[in-house]
Amino acid sequence: MNNPLVVITGVGEATGRALVDRFTRVGHPVAMLARDEARLRSYEQEFPAAKAYPCDIGDLQALQAVISRIQAEMGPVGILVHNAVAHSFETFLEADPESLERNFRVNTTALLYLARAVAPGMIATGEGAIICTGNTASHRGVPTYALFAPTKAAQRIFCEALARDLGPKGIHVGYVTVDAAIDVAWLGADEDRPDWLVPPADWPHSREEFFAKPGAIAEEVYHLTQQDRTTWTFDLVIRPFAEKW
Fold this sequence. Notes:
Layout: E1 5-9, H1 15-25, E2 30-34, H2 37-46, E3 50-54, H3 60-74, E4 77-82, H4 98-125, E5 128-135, H5 149-166, E6 171-178, E7 181-182, E8 211-212, H6 214-226, E9 235-238
Parallel strand pairs: 1-2, 1-4, 2-3, 4-5, 5-6, 6-9, 7-8
């Protein structure tokens, strides 16, 4: 398929917008999903090949309706990028248990619904890509990620199941772990941020080099969708060059 339709969830000011920019720049039509309708409408003006589909993907019935509408209005989906995320950063004693259910719906169950909606068309053509953006919470549990990490780990394992199922059918499934803070304007000044979003005092490089650039993340996602099928990547971990790991 030449320049197939791309569906991107979680289109916010950082990675989401960068993904829309990257795919539309090379001629892909893009369906943008996010809760903030005003933001999506502004991106429609900025990226004429992109179309807004406001949706809370944690509302699974609404998500199904939106995906059906996208396919009716824009055609078959050739690339799905699941970038939406729901998170909570408290210990298991501090957090509202309902947060676990919400996080799971957005991070994992929504991906199941999306994959079920788009995969049959990809299987019919023998090509396509499903890429999910994740983070190190998908690889390890820490106390303040108690209600978040389990949902990202499940997301990654679900993607692996998809990759093993869909790969032989011509569909590339990849998981991108971003081991980094992503700098976005709405986080404000350093003094207002949690510690993990502030460069440590002993960081040996410029402040800008502490953060992963949204455009660079989008470039890696795009690259996965262009790989030769004899050298597909499933598990891609990216981080700033001086990150301790």
